[in-house]
# Entry
Amino acid sequence: MIEIIDLEKSFKGQKVLKGISLSVSDGELMAIIGESGGGKSVLLKHLIGLLKPDRGHVLVDGVDITALRGRELDRIREKFGVVFQGSALFDSMTIYDNVVFPLREKTRLGSGEIRERGLRALEDVGLRGIEEKYPSEISGGMKRRVALARALITEPSIVFFDEPTTGLDPIILHSIHNLIVSTHRKYRFTGVIISHEIPEIFDVADKVAMLYGGRIVAAGTPEEIESSQDPAVRQFITGSTQGPIKSLG
# Structure
């Protein structure tokens, strides 16, 4: 479904991605982990087509999106759903209007079908009945659920999650992770999750890749990553201050 080939990107002479290669299979949930500021969000922006690499390719269903512009890129993006960090809801819109926004913008569906799909999307994330509330009237965890409903409403084949549980307490964090798993089972989308939630993300993902020093230093099943002997991987998953990753604390 997604293939990243020798991806490189620099900003003002500082190389952030140093030859990333990674494959995400159809229907797979792939978690990309790594230290803060290590390039995970930069990589995600390449997968969505928001950034162009200095070198390398990103293939989606065999199509190199790094070579696309304008409407051609927009057509590929119609396959995408995105759960943004912090939810990124429109404060001036009701929950219902936030959820159905992609349908109104990208489709010619009638109001009746849009409403049916909007209410069903809210029901899928356990929020039926709050559609007339505004984002300021609901909790942080509920906002993440709304963001997921919005991402899924167009029935995308690929969903990108940018730190979907950052700042949530452990109980709500597990609730959102469980929701990601249950909606993945229902819709069978291919998912890429940017996360630093260790070890919780290991219970969610089918595969895990660790980004360190601008490169993927390990990729495999959660069990394979947990048993990795790579020093950076061991340090990151154990939270040790000893190792190649330099703490700012």
User: Anything to note?
Assistant: Helices lie at 40-48, 70-77, 95-106, 111-124, 140-152, 170-187, 222-226, 231-238. Strands lie at 2-11, 14-24, 29-33, 55-60, 63-64, 80-83, 158-162, 190-194, 207-212, 215-220.
